[in-house]
Amino acid sequence: MSETIKADLELNLQGLMCPLPVVKISQAIKNVPVGGVIEATATDPGVMADIPAWAKSTGNEMLKVEKEGKVIRFWVKRLK
Amino acid sequence: MEDRFLEFVKFDLQIIALSVFALLYALKVYQLMKLPWPREMGPRRGSEELGVVYSFAWLFFPWSMSSTTQHLGRWVEFALYHLGAGAAILGTFTIPFWPAIMTRPVSLTMAALVIGGFIVGAIKLARRIIAPELRVVSTPDDYFSLAAVEVFFFFTAMALITEARGWMIAYFLITAAFLFYVPFSKISHYVYWFFARVFFGLRYGRRGIIAGKRA
Amino acid sequence: MEEQKTVVEQAKEELEKRFSRTLAVAASNLCVHCGLCVDQCHYFVATRDPNISPVAKAEQVRRVVKGEHDWLRRIFPWWTGAKELTEEDLDKWVEAAFRNCSMCQRCVVNCPLGVDTPLVLATARGVLTAVGKAPEILVQLADAAIAREENLEFFKDFYLEQIKELEAELQKKVGDPEARIPVGVEGARFLYVPLSGAHTIMPAAEIFYHAGESWTLSMFEAANYGIFLNDPVRSKRITERIIREAERLKVQEIIITECGHAYAVSRWEAPKWFKDQPWNFRVRSILEVMDEYIQTGRIQVDKSRNPFSVTYHDSCNLGRNSGLFDEPRRILAACVEDFREMTPNRERNYCCGGGGGLVAIPEWQDIRLEAGKPKADQIRATGAEAVVASCDNCRHQLGEINEHYGLNVRVMGMAELVANAIVPNNGKK
Does B197 map to a domain? Predict the structure, then answer.
């Protein structure tokens, strides 16, 4: 499944203190070109909610979410 | 007849100046009272009343704040300066309105307090000129107010010590000028101070911060 | 067609909207520029830079307020420093209010006059937010929290699945396949509001399990970055999600996880925003709950299970802003063998340097670490092996200053420490 989307940058958001997951993805998105994709992994339940919410409120696109055991994988596309 | 002028500066001028002063303060307070006051609403953890008492009491106990604990000398300066100011202001009332109390020992004690204030004022002025952390925040009013208080202290002390007509006239003229200036300057801090201590006491008292024991 | 307002005009309007009695006093001639606040600020203590003392920071904003309200502003504005607002001022305010102040309030409790410098600087934060000059990441964090509610259906299943993973961990840890991390339980006594990290759920779940507590986990996180923007609209919306959830589930209490600002917001600020629709549940910190469990014997703890020396960092928002001083100390007295106070402490404690939203702003990491020096010195002086902080922002900052200053301490949360100390098989009622 995951090989269908090519990520420009991979990001590990596991086990971070508040508010680092959002801070890290917000920083990382500046390092991919518009149209580029970040693949992020997380295990904390709140991050499942935070990353899609962040993508929505910043006008980026949540391409896909996938669960592999304990780890959740997100693909976020930079739109602007 | 020649004391007409002294009488004028001692009574009429003081009353005029005090009336203007009071009117301007009333206006200040009115302007403040007109503004919205966002009160604390969270359920109380401590006592607002006790908070306000503590808030005002802190003034008298230098160990209640680390700033005055660390700089005890500054607290002593504060105490001496304000005692001097208190004595000088008191003189403007007692000399004209209660001359009977102004015996020689009383006058000299008041003069001593005023001289104490004068010395501290000189230190304050020097510090304001020298210390970089004060220089960056100082305005012309900061220097002028300090200098003006020094002049006021000087003439008060001279009037109290000599009790001479010339010094008395100068003292009352300066007092009147001072009363006109104070409401526009930082010397008016004590009006706001009253409000600030109430706000502080209500908030920090209600939230259970200042009335607790210290580890 | 209405003419477009300039940034300066918008800022002035916003400043006027916020001109309350408390601000009028704080921005008046009340401050005599005595300088006693200067070395009470961790920024100044660390940098000795006279331009970032509390009075110097507040003065930048105060002069503009005086430019609008001081009596001499029309004749001799320069006399009291009063000035007309410019866009350059606003850019400088970003530094003064967002970068160089963590809103710790240490200057307020040390000001002989009671000048509320954080109020002046928070007002600047609000104005800057209104004109779009606030740090972007703080706005993103606040907006993401709001979007989280709108996005509920999207993440709900994943969230619940992740909670199930944690529940399995809990069952293993306590050795009870019946142990639960309940979500959305109507009529529970507590609605526990965590942060996004599992570390804010697991120790609490373990403690609640041993206490036999009736609780349910919130779908939302406690953090409220709207407060760091001093944006009452965003802050209110973020808090409202939790209040609505609490009302829907008919709980008796909202329990806020170990998060300083979230507690201060829900306990002290939110009641002002909802004064027309007051709620009928209590708001407490998990610290108060743990303290109650220990004092009433609802959980048994054994301090020999934490056999290392511990010091406690009073988070500014929990301590100086909320009065939670005795609760953490009672917990520590029960749960650790060797507790060492740092000096100064309680309402005199130094900020760790990470407050006011600063931990969220990577661009300002340098000043944040520099301003953390007084805290690093305090910790080092205790010689403790671990430092406990009941706030995620503080813990993150303490972790960084631990590394930066080579303190070699373990940074822990209080719930983690209590969970360590719990005597198992006792609590399940």
Answer: no
ipTM: 0.95
- How far apart are the C-alpha atoms of A32 and B38, rounded to whole Å? 46
Concerning whether A18 is annotated as a catalytic residue, the answer is yes
Question: Which tokens in the block code for residue C104?
Answer: 């710790």
Is B164 at the interface with chain C, CB within 8 A? no
CATH of the domain at B92: 1.20.950.20
**Domain range annotation of chain C:** 7-134, 138-294, 300-421
In chain B, the number of structural domains is 1
Nearest CB to A47: which of C151, C154, C196? C196
Beta-strand pair A61-68/A71-77: antiparallel
Burial of residue C410, with CB atoms counted within 10 A of its CB: 0-12 exposed, 13-18 middle, 19 or more buried = middle
Q: Domain ranges for chain A, please list them.
A: 2-77
Is the residue at B110 inside a domain?
Answer: yes
User: Which CATH architecture describes the domain C7-134?
Assistant: Orthogonal Bundle (1.10)
Tell me the one-letter amino acid at C412. Answer: M
Q: Could you name the CATH architecture of C138-294?
A: 3-Layer(aba) Sandwich (3.40)
- In the complex, which subunits touch B with 3 or more CB pairs below 8 angstroms? C
In a domain, B13, yes or no: yes
CATH number of A2-77: 3.30.110.40
Q: What is the pLDDT along chain C (429 residues), one digit of tens a residue?
A: 567 899 999 999 999 999 999 999 999 999 999 999 999 999 999 999 999 999 999 999 999 999 999 998 888 999 999 999 999 999 999 999 999 999 999 999 999 999 999 999 999 999 999 999 999 999 999 999 999 998 888 888 889 999 999 999 999 999 999 999 999 999 999 999 999 999 999 999 999 999 999 999 999 999 999 999 999 999 999 999 999 999 999 999 999 999 999 999 999 999 999 988 888 899 999 999 999 999 999 999 999 999 999 999 999 999 999 999 999 999 999 999 999 999 999 999 999 999 999 999 999 999 999 999 999 999 999 999 999 999 999 999 999 999 999 999 999 999 999 999 999 864 454
Rounded to an integer, what distance in angstroms lies between the CA atom of residue C238 and that of residue C149? 9
Query: Which listed residue (A6, A10, A15, A18) is catalytic?
Result: A18
Region of A16 (left: φ > 0; alpha: ψ -120 to 50; beta: rest) is beta
Most A-contacting residue of C158, C219, C403 (CB-CB within 10 A), to test interface: C158
Min Cα–Cα distance to chain A from C416, Å: 14
